[in-house]
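Two proteins were folded this term; both appear here.
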Amino acid sequence: MAAEMAESPVNLTAFKRHVPTDSETAGGLTDAAVITRVMDFPPSERGPRERLESLMSGWKRGLSKSMVPYREDGRTYPGSEYFCADGFFPWYFSQSPKILFVGRETVQMSGGDYIADCLVAYRQNSVAGVTVNRHAFHSRMMYLAYGITHGCGIACEDLPRAGDIAAAFGTREGISFAFMELSKYSNDNEDANSRRDKGLMERFLRDSLSAGRNFFREELELLDPDIIITMNLWECGVDNALIEAALGKVTLEDGKTWQPHATVNRIVINGRRVLLIDLNHFSSRKSTKECFYNPVMGIVRGEGIPDQPQ
């Protein structure tokens, strides 16, 4: 994959973790004054944001004693230095339905705050050096969230441009969503944009699950989504038993697939059976309309969900 396909909006040097990170900042990725200006949570979300920050801080502390090898220099560093926080964007809890996207791994953002840096990138319409329109990963999230929150009745070709959606994203007038990575250990290897680090992902899951509390479930329960959209999570090479131990049991809805592009599942969160749609990875070179947008709109509308020819 080209660099523009990475899940991360900003590139760090591969050797960033040689410099100590400051847990009170966004990892030095974006100027603090800029973050303060764009991270404008409404009063009703300031409590959840504080709880999320507390959760992320506790998660990071729980990883501080794990020494994780870094492939580029052969040295080991505390897991807390790889950690990149995530969560929800402003006005998420005002959305109906509330949508959570779940990716595989953070890329080149060790010590950062994914939400803060993505929001700045959206405002500047520059994600990893390209516009939101040209960035497959982020434009697809914009299109899907916009379509769902507008009743699933807009044809793909009639959607606003992703950059226009992003311009009002995270405001009262725009859309919003939540985002979390399966692995919050940032893959900062030189080849991170073309090669996922399965070993680092599994290491994060094991380190987190051995920390004495299930941070994954706590984050899901705090976000309390109505719809979860995952990105080929069960085909990424990570031990599926580890994924289930982290997220909880995911149940396939019998006969409800949009093959080969989507599967329809349920996961219990806060006592509710939440719809979980697993798609292709968002950086894959597939048709946004046929392989992402149309299947999701059909599933959410509750249509017949027929098998689709490959």
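Next, the second protein.
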Amino acid sequence: MNNSLQIASAREPVPANYKNMEGGGLIHLHKLKNKNGLEATISNCGARLVSLLIPDRQGNMVEVIGGNDKPNALYDGKNNSHAAVWDVEQYDVHTVGLKYFSRSMEGNFPGNLTVKRNYVLNDDDSLRIVYEATTDKTIVMNLANNSFFNLNGRNSGNILNHQVWIKADRYMPVDANMSPTGEIEFVTGTPFDFRNSATIGSRINDHHVQLANGNGYDHNFVLNKHSSRTPVARIRGDKSGVIMEIFTDQPGLQFYSGNFMKSKPVNKDSDKDDSHTAFAMRIRHFSGLPTPPGCPLSALRPGQVYRTIYSYQFKN
């Protein structure tokens, strides 16, 4: 196999310093745009969402993708999907569909796995992401988008004054190694209660063992009963006024407040990921071990199709 990086200027020009760290193949950027001017740019390198331009309350376009971005967590294991070149199956002004084939024992996991990921930018200012997967051996699946956001704009400072609301009465504690303990605790009376909107930074320095374990927020919230038509989380940028609502059919949401960013260049523009300059809201199943009672594992068996949908709805 030829592992040399090849960069092509089809679809959209690829900046010369946009690197594919593993594998080979042609890298393209695919730009989506809706009637209101929102723009999303997806690379076939890792099926990454590399840019998302949203108008702020003054009508100025704001780049809300910031910090590190490794968008594909396949069955909670290490594999090359985040750096591999995916096949593009569909592309038009609103949609790009990508596919990746993970061979058996990639990342030490058995089974040949085919993953499809579709991005759809709608005229209602929502970006919808659809995952599908099939396998020839039973595995536990957890496909997650790990995009990092700063709703005030890239290089605008920290996200500690972003307002956050999460529809969750409970969350999952972690130990000092950031592994789930298998317990579920209620958020009432803790810094993890975002049922009423609060800023990220308002309680992040409270003396709480879970904040100490995570060096901030890096915890899975057990979402209250919901449908995919109602939001499970809402985040608002304090400077831009940009609001992002999250919709999903999944039971969990991993909230990460950018605690371990190292002030190193992380993207095509050589921006740095200083601490707390971006956040992540990872939609997920409960595939971590040990798994609490009543929290289903997302096992995928041969002959089945894993499918999950979530979307980001933007307002200002």
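The domain at 5-148+301-315 is CATH 2.70.98.10 (Beta-galactosidase; Chain A, domain 5). The first helix runs from residue 209 to 214. These notes refer to the second protein only.
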